[in-house]
Amino acid sequence: MDIQTLTFLIVGATFALYIGIALWARAGSTNDFYVAGGGVHPVANGMATAADWMSAASFISMAGLISFMGYDGAVYLMGWTGGYVLLALCLAPYLRKFGKFTVPAFIGDRYYSQTARTVAVICAIFVCFTYVAGQMRGVGVVFSRFLEVDITWGVIIGMGIVFFYAVLGGMKGITYTQVAQYCVLICAYLVPAIFISIMMTGHVIPQIGFGGELNDGSGTYLLDKLDGLSAELGFAEYTSGTKSTIDVFFITAALMVGTAGLPHVIVRFFTVPKVRDARKSAGWALLFIALLYTTAPAIATFARVNMIDTINGPDAQGTAYEKAPSWIGNWESTGLISWEDKNGDGKMFYSGDERNEMDIDRDIMVLANPEIADLPAWVIALVAAGGVAAALSTSAGLLLVISTSISHDLLKRNLMPNISEKQELGYARIASAVAICIAGYLGINPPGFVAQVVAFAFGLAASSFFPAIIMGIFSKRMNKEGAIAGMLSGITFTAAYIIYFKFINPAANTPDNWWFGISPEGIGTLGMLLNFAVAVGVARMTSDAPKHVQDMVADIRFPKGAGEATAH
Fold first, then answer.
1. Model pTM?
2. How many whole angstroms separate alpha carbon 166 and alpha carbon 175?
3. Domain count for the chain
4. Fewer Cβ atoms within 10 A, N terminus or C terminus of the chain?
5. For 174, what's the count of Cα atoms within 13 Å in the CB-facing half-sphere?
6. Most confident listed range (166-175, 318-327, 405-414, 542-551)
7. What integer best gives the mean pLDDT of the chain?
8. Do 102 and 405 form a contact (C-beta atoms < 8 A)?
9. Residue 107 Cα distances to 120, 382, 567, angstroms
10. Does residue 419 sit within a domain?
11. Spatial distance between the Cα atoms of 187 and 195, rounded to a whole number of angstroms
12. Is 338 helix (H, G, I), strand (E, B) or coil?
C-alpha cells in the first residue's frame, strides 16, 4: 500500500478507538466530567498525564527545534522535564490535599475572594488558549502532509475530533482516551528512532546510538560528523551554544515554573482516589515521559544528518531538483518546504549562510524523519498517527480546563450560583464548543512555531499562577490583595512583552533590544519575579490573611489522607 492509504487506515483506526472510548466512558455527572469520578488507577493516570503533558510541542516540535538549534534546544528538554519534577514533588500532593480540582477554585478559596477567583479564571483561559493554539497548529501540520489537505482543513478536522470526545466524555472520556493516545504516540516516536539508530550506528537503543560511532567503517562519531557538516555549511557547531547564559537560565526557569502552574496538568492529580495514588501516578508519568524526552535528542540528530545528506548530496554540492528525494516533493506540496534556485544551477543547496536555497519549517522534522531515512510506509503512517495523538490529547485537556473554568469557577461559583448540576454540565459543553472554535482560529493563524507558542503559554503560567500557588501553600500570611495584585502585574507584564516583540514590532525581536538579554520565551521568569515582588509588597501594606485561612494553610502542608476532590 502507498503512504496515504496506510495513513488513512492507521489514523482512522486510532480515531475510531478514541471515539469508541469516549462513548464507553461518557460523563454522566459533573464529577465524571471534571475529575473522572476520582477512580482512575495510578498507572493509567500516569499514562494519561504523560499524554496530556507530551503535546504537539513535545512530539512534533521539540526534536525539530533541537535539530535546528543544536545545543541551544536543550533548554526545552531541561525546562519541561525539570518542571514536571517540580510539580509532582513540590505542589501536586499539597493541591491534592486541599481538594479543589481547578486552579481558580484553589486560588478563590485560599485567598477567600471571588475577585481572586475571577482573575485566576481569566489567567487560566489566557494561558490555555495560547497553549492550545500550538496543539491545533500541530494537527494541521500532520494532516496537511499525510492526508494531503490544506493546513486550514487539517485544523478543522482536528477540531471536529476533539469536539466529539472532549465535549461528550469530559475528563472521564479524556482520561481513558489519553491512555490509548500515549500508547500510540510512544510507539510512533520510538519505532522510527530504533530503526534509524540501527541503520546509522548499529545500536538498537537510540540514546546510545546518538553518542555512538557511525557504522560506515569510518570510525567517526555521529555528533562529530554533524559538527563538521554544520561548520562546513555555515551553521554554528551542533554541540556548541549561541544563546547567552542569562537567556538560557530564564527560558529554562520559565518552562519549569510554568509547568508547575499549568492547570490542565494539575487537575490530573484529582482523578485518582487518594493522595498516595497521586504520588504514584506522578512517578509513573515521569517514567512514561522520560521514554520520549530522552529519545528526542537522538531523533533530532538522526534527522539533521540525513536531511543534509539527502539535500546536499554526497559531494556536498547540492542535489539536482529533478533527482531530489521523494520526501522533499511530498512536503513541498504543503508549503512547509520551499526552494529558490539562487545560482541557476538547477540544484538544491542547504546552508547557514548566503548560499542557502532552502526554507524548511522546523516543525516537520519528526514527521518527515522516517521519509528522510527511507523507512517503510507503515512506519511513516504510524508517526502521523502519533503526531495526531500528541496534539489531540493535550488539546482535549486544555479545552476541558477552559470549559471548567467558565462553567464551574465563573458561573457556578460566582455569577450563577443557583444553576443545577445538569445546567452546569451543559454550560461546560457549550464553553468547550466555543473554545474549540477559537482554538482552531489560533491554530490556523499561529504566532510562531509550535514549541515557541507553547513556550509563551508556559511563560504566562509562570508569571501568573506559580507565585499564587506556591505562596498559597507555603505562606500563611499571604492575603487576597497581594495575590490579586501579583497575578495581574505578572501576566500583564509578560503578555505585553511577548505581544510587543512577536506582533507589534517583530523586527526588534533581537538580543540587542531585549530587556537584560531575555527573549520573549524566557520573559515569564522575570514576570514571575515581578509577581512575587508585587504580591509580597502589597501583602505587607495590608492586613494578614484571616486566622481560619492560616490554619487551613498549615493543615495542607501535611499531604496525608484521602483529600477527596470537591468543587464546594
1. 0.79
2. 10
3. 1
4. C
5. 33
6. 542-551
7. 81
8. yes
9. 7, 42, 13
10. yes
11. 12
12. strand
